[in-house]
Structure formats: structure tokens, C-alpha cells
Design a protein that fits this description.
- The radius of gyration is 18 Å and the shape is globular.
- Helix content is 63%, strand content 1%.
- Helix 1 runs parallel beside helix 14 and helix 1 runs antiparallel to helix 15.
- The chain has one domain: ADP-ribosylation/Crystallin J1 (ADP-ribosylglycohydrolase fold, Orthogonal Bundle), CATH 1.10.4080.10.
């Protein structure tokens, strides 16, 4: 089932990125690991000192939280997710990025979940959307308000929200049978007036003959959507039928490989299916049983036609 491969590949991409996450000198990653095609603990003086091999970054942790919340509420309910998210970070021993700190501060000063989002442009806010696409895979429109709301709750910036919608639309078309390249072209044609999106897609498409590390260095290795978005396009189109190589080349390029990888894994997992994901990437996820149990729970709900809440 490609829907399950979609979400498992997104989780695996984040775990694979942990070893070299936010290491901006790609040569350091290569010197330490050779080819980073396996899970490793964070490198050196990391942003993730509490993490172990097979764990997630703070992005993957939030994606797992979202998956759990969907299972509990039988759909996406923004107020409930906001409460779960705040509770989660009240005792979190991982990294707090600026978007998280700003959002928590906004909540502290009385903001509602519709007002709480930071002004961060980081793609990480959009990168955790895959559980919503999994839950609403049989719905024509239920995914859209949920994707928009969960992203804006922490990253209330037009670039991030529109990126979440763009990559969600691409992924749903891939699940329906389109190739990633065809889906990207079709979705971008519907983005009239969204000059940033069009520009980032074009930059990614124009880079396909370039070495991936050089291409991502040219876009920028940082978290900002303006840098990460064309990197995702490059990875998805250059390695359309080779999920493993896409995710390995992503981490070898350095920087915010977690956000790029989660988006890339989501799209290519939807395309290649389970056979595209190395088996040890799945079995060595420390949250493997937790994730698959939640997916089974959601599958059972959908089989029963359980109500899907939107609020």
C-alpha cells in the first residue's frame, strides 16, 4: 500500500537525517560517515544531544505527535492538536527551534491556535504534514483545511503554508497514479500568481544535471523555504524512481536535511511503494511499533467509516 510507504518513508528520511542534521560542511559528513546510508547518532556537538541512532529530529517527533493526535480525535481538530503540542513541549528534552519558542510564547500571551503561529519561513512547519494525507487519503477535500491549519499553527507565513499545500497536492496526485514529475508540473500550472512557488519549482527543475550537493549548496542548505523548496524539487525529479538514493544524497548535501528529506520521502514513498524503502530503515526505527500501531488504528477507523473531525 503506497499510502503506508508514503508516511514510513517520511519518517525514515527524518531518522536518516539525524546523524548529520544541521552540519553545513558536507565534507565533514563524508569524512565522518563515508556515505551516510544508515541511521547514526547525531554528529559531534549536535543540536540533538539526547537522541540515539534511529530516533527522530524535533521535526519527526512532531510528525509522530500529529499522527497520534489524528488517531485519538479520529481526524484533525486544531484545538486538540494545539493542546497536545503544547503539552508535548512542556517536557520535551529535544531541540526547540525559533518557531517553536515563538509559538509557545504566543500561546503564553493568550493567542488561540489560529493566532499562535510564528513568522518563521522554515519548511519544517510544512514537513510534518504526511499523517494528515494518510488519514484523509479517501477524502477529496478534507485534507486541505487540516494541512493549512496545522502548518499555520506554528509557521504562519505564506511561503510555508503554500508549500505545505503544494507538496500535499503533488503527493495526492502521485498516490492516484501520476509520476512525481507529472504531478509537479500539473500542480505548478495551477499556481498562477504564486511567483515564489513557480520560481522555486523552476530552479529545482533547471538543476537536474547538476551534482546534488552542488545544487543544494546553490539553493542554500538552510531551513528557509526559499532554499529548501527547490532542493526538494531537485531530489524528487532527479531520483524519481530511486527513493534510497534521493534520501542518501539529501543527507550528504548537509544543512537542514530533515525537512527536505521528509518532503522528498513522502512524495517518493507514494510513488515507489514499500519496495523502495530499505528494510533496515524501517526495522531500525526506534518508534517502529508505535508508528505501525497508530497506522493500524487509523486504518481500522477508516474501514468502519468513522467520522473525521474538522475544527
Amino acid at each position: 500500500m503506497n499510502e503506508r510507504a508514503m508516511i514510513l518513508a517520511s519518517f525514515a528520511a527524518d531518522a536518516l537525517a539525524l546523524g548529520g542534521h544541521w552540519v553545513y560542511n558536507a565534507a565533514v559528513i563524508e569524512k565522518k560517515y563515508g556515505i551516510l546510508d544508515r541511521y547514526e547518532p547525531p554528529l559531534g556537538r549536535s543540536y540533538h544531544p539526547t537522541k540515539q541512532r534511529g530516533d527522530f529530529t524535533h521535526y519527526g517527533d512532531q510528525m509522530l505527535l500529529l499522527l497520534e493526535d489524528l488517531a485519538v480525535t479520529r481526524g484533525f481538530a486544531l484545538d486538540h492538536f494545539a493542546g497536545s503540542w503544547r503539552s508535548f513541549f512542556s517536557s520535551y528534552d529535544g531541540y526547540f527551534d525559533h518557531a517553536t519558542k515563538d509559538t509557545l510564547e504566543n500561546f503564553k500571551h493568550g493567542a488561540t491556535p489560529r493566532e499562535s503561529g510564528s513568522h518563521s519561513t522554515d519548511l519544517g512547519g510544512a514537513a510534518r504534514i504526511c499523517p494528515i494525507l494518510y488519514f484523509y487519503r479517501g477524502s477529496q477535500g478534507g485534507w486541505l483545511p487540516a494541512v493549512r491549519a496545522q502548518t499555520a499553527m506554528t509557521h504562519n507565513h505564506e511561503d510555508v503554508v503554500k508549500s505545505a499545500i503544494f507538496f500535499s497536492d503533488v503527493t495526492r496526485r502521485v498516490l492516484a497514479g501520476q509520476s512525481p514529475s507529472a504531478a509537479v508540473l500539473e500542480v505548478v500550472q495551477s499556481c498562477q500568481g504564486q511567483e515564489n512557488i513557480i520560481s522555486w519549482v523552476n530552479r529545482g527543475r533547471e538543476s537536474l544535471d547538476a551534482d546534488t550537493r552542488q545544487a543544494i549548496a546553490g539553493f542554500g542548505q538552510q531551513c528557509a523555504t526559499a532554499a529548501a523548496f527547490p532542493g526538494v524539487i531537485h531530489l524528487v525529479l532527479k531520483y524519481e524512481n530511486d527513493l534510497k538514493t534521493a534520501l542518501v544524497e539529501n543527507v550528504m548535501a548537509g544543512g537542514d536535511s530533515a525537512a527536505r528529506g521528509m518532503m522528498t520521502g513522502m512524495i517518493l514513498g507514494a510513488h515507489t511503494g514499500m519496495e523502495g524503502i530499505p528494510g533496515h530503515w524501517l526495522s531500525q526505527l526506534r518508534a517502529w511499533e508505535r508508528i505501525t500501531g497508530l497506522l493500524d488504528q487509523i486504518d481500522a477507523m477508516n474501514d468502519r467509516g468513522a467520522p473525521k473531525l474538522l475544527s
